[in-house]
Write a structure and sequence with these properties.
By secondary structure, this protein is of the alpha/beta class. Helix content is 38%, strand content 15%. It contains six helices and eight strands. The strands form three sheets. The protein has a four-stranded parallel beta sheet with strand order 3-4-7-8.
């Protein structure tokens, strides 16, 4: 199929944007995820991403533009996102158990700033669901997985949630991000300080070493 001219593409984008803005933000987000799943089914082979490689922490990224966690929390359209040319894709945040997140409305548009306010609260279908998606993916590029703790897990028990997620996603990830920064899970950011942080990082580092030996990859 021939590529669309720049002017036609801009007209189509403007029309689609206006249509999506008629929907509530979270509904538009769900629609975008569904459309990307369809796209993946129509494109058996993803086009190569723009080549401007860079190496970071032993990983070679094809370019510097990556998709951050939060857009595809459950890994349901990794292949569709992969076909857009990102240098990496990060999915999550995922927690051990499924949880609904914060009450709606929790996603707000700021059109003048071309921005969003996100108060989702780690809504996701749980790590087992995510792993099932990872096992089916065809996307061959750099994949990051963002892990967190469940809302009902105390700070004292938080390390257990992170360790469980680390172990489940380790074979499928090129890198793993530990989310202790979200302001939308009460108390989560306490893990950034003092004994909580030292204990969490020590346990994760020790488990990572064990998993590296088990899987033969770091």
């Amino acid at each position: 199929m021939p590529a669309l001219s720049g002017s036609v593409a801009l007209v189509m984008y403007a029309a689609l944007r206006r249509a999506l803005f008629l929907l509530p933000p979270e509904t538009a987000h769900a629609f975008a995820l569904a459309a990307l799943k369809v796209r993946a089914g129509l494109l058996p082979l993803a086009p190569p991403p723009v080549a401007a490689p860079i190496e970071v922490m032993g990983l070679r990224f094809p370019n510097r533009i990556g998709l951050a966690a939060g857009f595809d929390k459950d890994g349901v359209c990794i292949d569709g996102l992969g076909s857009l040319g990102f240098g990496c894709i990060e999915v999550g945040t995922v927690t051990p158990r499924a949880q609904p997140g914060n009450p709606q409305p929790r996603l707000f548009r700021l059109p003048e700033q071309r921005a969003l306010i996100n108060r989702m609260g780690f809504n996701n279908l749980g790590v087992d669901h995510l792993v099932a998606q990872l096992q089916r993916r065809r996307y061959p590029g750099v994949l990051g997985i963002n892990i967190g703790k469940n809302l009902t897990t105390s700070l004292e028990a938080a390390a257990g949630d992170y360790l469980l997620c680390l172990e489940r996603v380790y074979p499928h990830a090129d890198y793993i991000a530990v989310n202790i920064s979200s302001p939308n899970t009460p108390g989560l950011r306490e893990l950034q300080f003092g004994n909580y942080l030292e204990d969490l990082l020590a346990q994760l580092s020790a488990r990572r070493q064990q998993l590296a030996q088990r899987w033969g990859r770091r």
